[in-house]
Inverse folding.
């Protein structure tokens, strides 16, 4: 009689290998599942905080941008010779504007000073009359009460004198401007631009009761020099 011999030890080893492989597969599955969960769900709090921080940063930038006010001087040329200045200034005067300021032994010829939103139509007007121009920006940060008041004062002065550029307007009364300026809150001496604010108020106080076209050039020169002083 013949007997069939089975190698039980060999089969046992095969079973162990299968069991070990199964454990490894399960472990890797759990590990992969944990990683994926953390990627999409586990960092939800961090993602929410990141979105919130981004929104806060964006809001801060928008607020900072809103605090910056720009005034624009329209420049038409820079010269070293006075005869060149007189020629261009004569052209600008015929178009209703024009003034000059000295700067580092040179003469700047400018057409006028405007609120930034109103400057582009002036550039177009000059271009239509074949006069080249460029913008010079003056930025004022309304980060304190003093600077905020300076912005209001300059806006008010520009608004009054710009009325003289309207058709059939020969002069403008300044009583309301004077009354408004005298009623502004007094600023303490801590503002870094307090001198500019006081000079603007003093300028308004000393304006004649009525201003005409003859006053526009001197007014533009004054405003330009005050804007240059702002820190």
């Amino acid at each position: 009689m013949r007997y069939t011999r089975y190698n039980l030890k060999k089969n046992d080893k095969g079973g162990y290998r299968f069991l070990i492989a199964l454990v490894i597969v399960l472990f890797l599955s759990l590990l992969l599942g944990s990683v994926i969960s953390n990627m999409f769900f586990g960092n939800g709090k961090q993602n929410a905080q990141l979105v919130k921080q981004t929104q806060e940063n964006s809001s801060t930038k928008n607020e900072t941008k809103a605090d910056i006010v720009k005034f624009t001087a329209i420049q038409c040329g820079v010269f070293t010779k006075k005869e060149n200045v007189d020629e261009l200034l004569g052209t600008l005067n015929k178009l209703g504007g024009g003034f000059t300021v000295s700067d580092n032994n040179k003469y700047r010829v400018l057409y006028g000073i405007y609120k930034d939103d109103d400057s582009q139509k002036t550039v177009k007007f000059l271009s239509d009359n074949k006069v080249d121009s460029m913008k010079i920006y003056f930025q004022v940060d309304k980060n304190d009460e003093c600077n905020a008041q300076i912005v209001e004062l300059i806006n008010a002065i520009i608004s009054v004198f710009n009325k003289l550029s309207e058709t059939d307007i020969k002069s403008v009364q300044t009583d309301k401007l004077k009354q408004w300026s005298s009623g502004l809150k007094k600023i303490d001496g801590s503002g870094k631009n307090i001198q500019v604010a006081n000079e603007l108020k003093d300028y308004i106080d000393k304006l004649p009761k009525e201003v005409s076209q003859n006053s526009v050039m001197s007014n533009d020169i004054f405003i330009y020099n005050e804007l240059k002083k702002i820190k």
Notes: DSSP finds eight helices and six strands in the chain. Strands lie at 68-79, 99-103, 106-115, 134-141, 171-173, 210-212. The longest strand covers residues 68-79. The mean pLDDT is 83.
